[in-house]
Amino acid sequence: MTPAASILTIEDDLVLGAYVHEHLERSGFQVTWCQNGQQGLDMARARAFDVVLMDILLPGLDGLSILTDLRKSHSTPVILMSALGAEADRVSGFRLGADDYLPKPFSMLELRVRIEAILRRVALDRRPLPARPALCEDVPGLRFDDELEDVFHQQHAAGLTRSEFRLLETLHRNAEEVLSKAFLYQHVLQRGYAPHDRSLDMHISQIRRKLKAIGYTEREVRTVWGRGYTLSGRDDSL
Amino acid sequence: MTAFERPLTRLPGKHSLFWKLACLLIAFCLLMIWLSWSWGRYMEQQNAYLSEEAKFTLGGYAAGAEQAWNRGGHAGVDAWLQMLGARETTWVGVIGNDLQSLSSSPLSSSESQRLTFLRGLDWPVSRHVKGLPWLKIAFPTDPEAGSLVIELPQRFMPGRYQVFWRVVTNGVIPGLFTLLLCIGLYRLLIMPLNQLREQANAWRADQLNTRLSQDATSRQDELGELGRAFDHMSERLQGTVVLQQQLLRDMSHELRTPLSRLRVACDSEQDLAQLRERLGREIDAMQRLVEDSLQLAWLDAERAPLVKEAIQLQALWDMLRENVCFESDWPASRLPCLLGPECWVRGNLNGLAQALENILRNAIRHSPTGGVVCLDGRREGEYWHLWLEDQGGGIDERDLERIFAPFTRLDGSRPGDGGFGLGLSIARNALQRQDGSLWAENTGAGLRMHLRLPAL
Fold it and tell me: What CA dihedral angle connects B417, B423, B427 and B428, to 10 degrees?
């Protein structure tokens, strides 16, 4: 990470807040910790943070109202944390413009993965679109067609859906690199990742079936347990 | 109730209260009209005739007049009339058969008009008499000789109690009958409602096992329907409360167990690394328990419609298989899917994935070494009927339904253990929320879980 990313945490629980603060600082982030909703909103408006991390149940002003107010003027990425965990809560969070939703309890590793996924997605979004490298024919046996949003192997179309194509393309651009589920959700499906959400896994399953159906076996989408997915050569044991 | 929902489009049913009420009210109206009409007539007739006393007195006068005429002629009649004039204030005369006065003074013209009973031109033409009626009483022994004519004395005028009887027939008696009708309606309509209220009050006092009386629920009309619906509701309420209490009891047990294990670990473990490892294990188990229990509760409580999409079972199975193979070290070849690529269902991906994953994990947990778990199915009209079969030996027939209740763990009979007994309840709830169903069957070799899902 180039300059240390700045994070604003709005969390009223002293123990958890202190722990998150300490942990994120140790991970190399620049952390500002605020324990009150209204104060948090003022700070988020006054300074440009890279990520805002906040609880939903807060004294002063609750997380969802802060999010609504903040979204009127700022597009700072927001990760909501909540112990409520109801599906409806998650959905309303996303509808109000949250970038991710982290149900409590969570591990610090999980939190870091989510923050990095968002930072990486933001970096990708900000980067001026490079003239797309000629994707066609640069992989032996697999041709990406941006117009049709499909891949071909020996003239056979795989019949991917839009999301599947975007997913395979993302994996392909970062070939041999493990991409976290959190990042793939952010970048491809444009929403946060939840433990019970199986859409991404299902897309991966379909991609595998479709690649197999057109006889493409040089590389495959592999699962790296606990970390994410990667597109790699078949015999590469991870 | 049907009668109120579609008031004009359909006639109320045969047993509806409508017919009872209609018959009752129509009968009541007819009865009242008939009663007041016939009683009124009867009373009027009763009041139109002279009393026995009046007849006797007036008959006596006629006899007196005859005697006076026979004894004294004109002069005798004059004297008798004078004597009677002192007793009666009304007009009295004695006439012969030629309608001429038998007294010495002749009849005035108005008097003779009265005698002929002819109305004057300007008299009211009414059934009722104007003024006091004039009576002609023939002489009792020789009616040919003459008659006594007398304007009826006021005290003999019938119908003195007419107002009283009118009040009775037109006021008191209809009032009494209406009161009776009200009592009838009250017993018919309000008493059952009172019973319902009493039952509702009984619930407030936590007596959920009280039910309505037999005759309240066996009625054929709307109130019977209401009573039955009420009973049905109280049954469901009782069921839910019992289930909740059971859940709470089970949960407090399940939550305390890992806590006490934590406490023991905290007290006894000396080695920090081992303590850490034990704590991590217990926290994982607790988190799983809390998440599963809460999810079960949310599945029950949430009523928002699910997002549904087309799901290909083959792809779903591949995804789940990859996960469970990693968890359980099973080779994928022991988890075959016999369904073709044409098997697409309509459902909520996350719910269906979780249900199938729970069922699959359960099957794997109870499989013998080297056992196979396979998924198969066929299309049945608008639905896909899928089944997942293991070789774990099956369970007792009596437990086939019980395994879907939360925190049910069958002991001993099947290999494998672990879990909180929530997986199948969550699976069933999740499937029911997307219009599917889940049930179990013994195959002899193992347990077969049937799933029924709407086809695409």
Answer: 80
Reported as a single tens digit per residue, the pLDDT across B6-26 is 555 567 777 888 888 898 899
- For residues B113-131, average pLDDT: 63
Q: Which CATH number fits domain B50-118+130-156: 3.90.1300.10, 2.40.110.10, 3.90.25.10, 3.30.450.170?
A: 3.30.450.170
ipTM of the complex: 0.79
Nearest to A86 among B298, B353, B354 (CB): B298
Interchain CB distance below 8 Å, A202 and B349: yes
Nearest to A196 among B319, B326, B354 (CB): B354
Backbone angles phi, psi at B291, to 5 degrees: -65, -45
Indicate if the pLDDT at residue A236 is higher than 50. no
- Identity of the residue numbered B375: L
Is residue A183 domain-resident?
A: yes
A202:B354 CB<8 A: no
Q: Are residues A108 and A149 in the same domain?
A: no
pLDDT of amino acid B416: 47
What is the chain B residue with the closest CA to A84?
B294
pLDDT tens per residue, range B232-244: 888 888 888 887 8
CATH code, A57: 3.40.50.2300
pLDDT at B3: 44
* Domain range B307-454, CATH class: alpha beta
d(CA A81, CA A54): 6
Interface test with A, best of B287, B319, B320, B329 (most A CBs within 10 A): B319
Q: Would you call A198 and B304 a contact, using CB atoms and an 8 Å cutoff?
A: no
Instruction: Give yes or no: residues A89 and A192 share one domain.
Output: no
Stretch (H or E) spanning B285? helix B272-301
- Arithmetic mean of pLDDT, B267-288: 84
pLDDT, one tens digit per residue, over B430-441 is 898 888 999 999
Q: Residue B318: list chain A partners with CB under 8 A.
A: 205, 208-209
Around Cβ A221, how many Cβ atoms within 10 Å?
18
Going from the C-alpha of A121 to that of each of A99, A102, A189, the distances in angstroms are 11, 17, 12
The pLDDT, as a whole number, for residue B150 is: 83
Q: Are B333 and B373 in contact (CB under 8 A)?
A: no
For an interface test with A, which of B295, B318, B324 has the most A Cβ atoms less than 10 Å from its Cβ? Answer: B318
Question: Structural domain of residue A28, as residue ranges?
Answer: 6-126
A182 neighbors A114 (Cβ within 8 angstroms): yes
Residue with tokens 């009172």: B194
Nearest Cα residue in chain A from B354: A196
**B312/A206 touch (CB, cutoff 8 Å), yes or no:** yes
- Do A87 and B326 make contact, defined as CB atoms within 8 angstroms? no
Nearest beta carbon to residue A85 from set B294, B353, B354: B294
State the burial class of residue B427 (Cβ atoms within 10 Å of its Cβ: 0-12, 13-18, 19+): buried
